[in-house]
User: Which sequence fits this backbone?
């Protein structure tokens, strides 16, 4: 009965590869997010997406792309991985219309680039 | 743009004692919401407490309470009777209607036995 689940929990891969991280939420939320948490623990929003609008943080390289097959899923695709992409990536969801509702986070995916 | 500041990168507290983590934010909005999240070593992000800006009464959740000072744009978290399991990163977050969450840089709390 996990609310926000993301897979895999750990991902180790070579520089230059393409990889995906999957995220699913069963909370009926209408908005999903991807965050990057660097080694200093700073949380940086990468994308927010609902069925109407994709908002991209302009500092995110276009090697990163979100894919949403339906409202319950928002997967993250990363092309041509670089050393600086090593971080923990969090998926989250919330109800956009109710600002007092918190975001619910997945457990994170630790991505390590060799 | 809204910003959230946590001026204490690290804090420590003795077990059973009380500790206060500070958070300030910058906004021109009058309607917004504030949150504290806890991230233990397991790296899960766990909601600790939330506060609506229109409420004057400070939110409390068991041993966790906030001191919300709207005029000063301050939202500190007080942890009473600290336990070893409280050791974690704590993030303050802000959200106004229709906008994304803005997180502070975090405070690492250590609890000493």
Assistant:
């Amino acid at each position: 009965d996990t609310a926000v689940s993301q897979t895999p929990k750990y991902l180790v891969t070579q520089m230059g590869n393409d990889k995906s991280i999957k995220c699913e939420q069963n909370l009926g939320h209408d908005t999903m997010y991807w965050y990057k948490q660097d080694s200093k623990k700073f949380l940086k929003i990468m994308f927010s997406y609902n069925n109407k609008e994709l908002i991209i943080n302009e500092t995110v390289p276009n090697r990163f792309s979100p894919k949403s097959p339906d409202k319950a899923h928002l997967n993250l695709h990363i092309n041509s991985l670089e050393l600086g992409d090593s971080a923990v990536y969090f998926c989250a969801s919330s109800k956009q219309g109710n600002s007092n509702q918190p975001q619910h986070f997945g457990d994170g995916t630790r991505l390590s680039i060799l | 743009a809204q910003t959230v500041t946590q001026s204490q990168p690290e804090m420590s507290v003795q077990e059973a004692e009380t500790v206060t983590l500070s958070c300030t934010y910058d906004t021109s909005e009058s309607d917004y919401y504030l949150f504290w999240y806890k991230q233990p070593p397991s790296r899960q992000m766990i909601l600790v407490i939330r506060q609506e800006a229109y409420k004057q009464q400070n939110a409390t959740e068991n041993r966790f309470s906030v001191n919300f000072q709207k005029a000063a744009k301050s939202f500190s978290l007080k942890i009473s009777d600290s336990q070893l399991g409280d050791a974690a990163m704590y993030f303050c977050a802000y959200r106004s209607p229709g906008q994304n969450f803005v997180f502070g840089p975090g405070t690492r709390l250590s609890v000493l036995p």
User: Anything to note?
Assistant: DSSP finds no helices and eleven strands in chain A. Chain A has a mean pLDDT of 91. The interface with chain B takes residues 33, 40-43, 45, 48, 55, 88, 90, 92, 94, 96, 99-100, 102-105, 107-108, 110 of chain A (CB under 8 Å).
